[in-house]
Amino acid sequence: MKEISGRAFAERFALNPLGFAWMLGAGASATAGIPTGYQMIQEFRTRLFASETGISLREIDPADPVWQSRIDLHHERKGVLPPKGDPSEYSRAFEALYPTPEDRRLFIRNQVSKGSPSLGHKVLGSLLGARKTPCVFTTNFDSLIESAATIASQLLPASERGTPTLAAIDNAARAETCLRESEWPLIVKLHGDYQSVELKNTDQELALQDAQLRLVLTQSLQRFGLIVVGYSGRDDSVMQALSAVLRSPVRYPKGIYWLCRDADSLLPAVRELLEQAELAQVDVHLVRGTTFDELCGDIADVTDLPAPLVTHVFGDRSTAAIAQVPLQRQAVLKAPVLRLSAMPLIEMPKSARKISLNSNAGIADVRALLKQAGVRATVGQAGGPGVLAAFGPDALLEKALAPFGAKLAGEVALDVAKDSWAKGVIYDALVRALCRDLPLFARLHGRGHSLSVSRPNSELPRELAQARRDLLSRLKTAYGSELTGPVPGTSGKYSEGLSIRLEQADERWWAVFEPSTFIDLDHRAPDADPPQATAEWRKAEDWRRERWVQKYNHRWSAILDAWVELLTHAQGPRRSAYGLAQETGVDAMFELGAKTARSRPAHDHDFFHVQRGQR
User: Fold this and answer.
1) Of the candidates 379, 413, 382, the residue with the CA atom closest to the CA atom of residue 396
2) pTM of the complete model
3) In 3D, which of 347, 345, 350, 418 has the Cα closest to residue 586?
4) 23 touches 226 (CB < 8 A)
5) Cα dist from 294 to 6, 317, 500, 549, whole Å
6) Cα(38)–Cα(63) distance, integer angstroms
7) pLDDT tens per residue across span 380-418
């Protein structure tokens, strides 16, 4: 699936702002101070626990892992709520705590009152107020978008104002009128407005998505491209409407742009929709590594907005005037300094054993022979058939590959920057070196290289089990939870781990790592048994996503520190893939620096420096 940066998409958007509709989910309102769905689920579960056990709510600290365990155990035993992480957990817990629509509406009203428009809302409101974007669809109940649009439009002369029409469940006819007569801009609340008599919260309510609003959504997306921000794809009714557009002769004419952390964070239903869109010749892109506020900041920077709205978004930028200022003589730090999850590779292999074959056997056949013989080694084709590059014991390699006429032929140079096959061999060896003598498992496959914490073996001797616990203790503390275990509500099991990639920067190579939670469902691929596997995979993906949603910067920093310590201190910074004795074979030696990389801005920003003159 194609990817595009937020800045690159902003440039594309600026060429034709009126060509795109927006779809906003709860994630778009998170920075505005409104609780996310995950946070509300935690609150519902805690309040239900307090009510059903008679414990005072003030005595419960839901952030304490001990209290979390007690709350989870209570709900598991009671069996009223679905398993933790189930897609229906929000709606079921909400209905259990507040059984009547009136109570649910009052709760939503109190929650949305906590928010105020963020930069993203301010920019999108300005686009609506300046008639620079036609329509916004949202599953949120808050009024942040329409408030921002009202404020922005009032800054313009009456003849230039774009006053949005607001349509929700109880006035859906307005949306149909706007669509029929092309009276833009339009804001559509797909699940209702916090002031609406009807709101979509429970399973039954969400299933009965208003037909008129669905029609407006599908027909609008036959005219416009779609930008999706902060939307998880959990609502079947909305996802069905987005899929229905693909059956139209004209569909998403300006493409689909879906903001996400990365492709792995997408729920299966979203991934399926985007794959079907690609098959239908829709231009689909993932906008990776940017937030709603960051994307809208880039859009405002390159889109032609009226001067009052530029000031409204960015503030007053007075022209600098020349003035005498004292020369700063002390050393200062150019901020901000960002920590990166990259360790320098101080040493890496320059060559590998060269093995010639009298057969054109593929690399899969070679590895199958090695596996059959029980030989632990790393092999790759050195630029073509008949020649291998290998790390491992010479005698065992030659013996295992004898059916292919294997002969040791000296060594072959590895140029990682030039040869993709050399990089592949280095990748495999690096991951094996990082895992050796540690309770880690190498995950080597065509989609990337990664490692994860191995699951504990109940038959380990007591001393080895304790040594394992000692090695992983800081990592467990950093995560604040177990590092392996079952995925609630599924047959799957999870392991915390890292995705690994090699990157060259600043004239050196780096091992870049990204913490990730790996899930295995009975050792089956997600499509092994479509109906059951897809449902299980969706539950597991939801659970994984919610597991990471609370890991803010301080927790991320602790997790990075713990991984660096484990990989560089536990067995020393200099690591080999196989620990071979001299003269027995070519081993892959690596040395990792224990200090992760830091980055400073590539260019100046107004808020980094005090300019000479007035601001």
Assistant:
1) 379
2) 0.50
3) 350
4) yes
5) 8, 20, 26, 18
6) 13
7) 888 777 899 999 999 999 999 999 999 999 999 999 888
